[in-house]
């Protein structure tokens, strides 16, 4: 069996893979050009990708032997799943292992933006901390006891919810259907209008693309915050920029963007009420290693005709 791997992975997982199949590896951290994938996938039985490689119809068509696409991610919006399935290709992914790491980052972002942690750090580093302490200096917003809105109720939303319970937050959510969870199901407009902190926890698909738009942002409280570590295009970024500039909401904390890396001229960069991180949701040593193990094992199992650990259904 021959496989193509589009990124180096942490740990010894590529060596492990090489003991089982013949591996052709893209050695850089930046994504390979599409032409490289097309040229190299022709004789391959499997491909192991990350979320920066878009696997579309053209790539699938240039891989007549392809049986498995293993993605090193929980999201699979970068794969034309429908077309691959029509071709009988198995798609595997790495959910569950990154849930807690992502929820930690989301909660970190939530606290960072509400308590102005990054702004405070910047102020000191820029030598602008002039007066030691006074009652109205750099006031943030309380997290404890506030209303947390969750858009989505999957694994990551539940993990955020568990953390929020420790902060005695009132939790409301909206998802395709109500779940048996200790939180109140509300309609979409209520979610936007009642949340003090609105956390996006849906995957990107045709129904969630730009679900956070001008109309929805206008429903939010002026004192509220928006937090997103799912996928950038769930939010209409231009609408969010307008909302932040015009004070429709108090702030935002973003780990994902419509275009990544975030363009250097993005207005978000100069906004003090915005916390930005470069798609770090799952970026812990432990989680990234586990993701590598699962992505590699998924690929090997599926190529052998055995049940992979996680298959996209
Ligand atoms: C994923 O796995 O889809 C995440 O975005 C990576 O952090």
UniProtKB/TrEMBL annotation:
Entry's family note: Belongs to the D-isomer specific 2-hydroxyacid dehydrogenase family.
Top-rank taxon, per record: Archaea
Organism: Acidianus brierleyi
Any one GO molecular-function label of the UniProt entry: NAD binding
A GO-annotated cellular component: cytosol
Phylogenetic lineage: Archaea, Thermoproteota, Thermoprotei, Sulfolobales, Sulfolobaceae
Domain D-isomer specific 2-hydroxyacid dehydrogenase NAD-binding: 107-281
Protein name: D-glycerate dehydrogenase
Entry keyword set: Oxidoreductase
Signal peptide, first to last residue: none
């Amino acid at each position: 069996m021959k496989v193509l791997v589009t990124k180096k992975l942490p740990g010894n997982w590529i060596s492990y893979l090489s003991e089982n199949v013949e591996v052709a590896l893209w050695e850089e951290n930046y994504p390979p050009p599409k032409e490289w994938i097309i040229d190299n996938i022709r004789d391959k039985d499997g491909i192991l990708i990350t979320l920066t490689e878009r696997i579309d119809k053209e790539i699938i068509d240039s891989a007549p032997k392809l049986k498995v696409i293993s993605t090193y991610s929980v999201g699979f919006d970068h794969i034309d799943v429908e077309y691959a399935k029509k071709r009988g290709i198995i798609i595997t992914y790495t959910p569950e292992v990154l849930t807690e790491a992502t929820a930690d980052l989301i909660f970190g972002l939530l606290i960072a933006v509400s308590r102005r942690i990054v702004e405070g750090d910047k102020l000191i580093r820029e030598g602008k901390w002039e007066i030691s302490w006074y009652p109205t200096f750099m006031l943030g917003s309380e997290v404890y006891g506030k209303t947390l809105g969750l858009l989505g109720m999957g694994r990551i939303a539940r993990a955020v919810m568990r953390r929020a319970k420790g902060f005695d937050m009132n939790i409301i959510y909206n998802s395709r259907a109500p779940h048996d969870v200790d939180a109140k199901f509300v309609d979409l407009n209520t979610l936007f209008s009642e949340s003090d902190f609105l956390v996006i926890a849906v995957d990107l698909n045709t129904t969630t693309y730009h679900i956070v738009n001008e109309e929805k942002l206008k429903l939010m409280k002026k004192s509220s915050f928006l937090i997103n570590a799912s996928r950038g295009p769930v939010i209409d970024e231009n609408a969010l920029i307008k909302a932040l500039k015009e004070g429709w909401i108090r702030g935002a904390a973003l780990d994902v963007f419509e275009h990544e890396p975030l363009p250097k001229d993005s207005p978000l960069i100069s906004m003090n009420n915005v916390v930005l991180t470069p798609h770090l949701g799952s970026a812990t040593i432990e989680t990234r290693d586990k993701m590598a193990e699962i992505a590699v094992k998924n690929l090997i199992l599926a190529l052998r005709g055995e049940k992979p650990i996680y298959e996209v259904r």
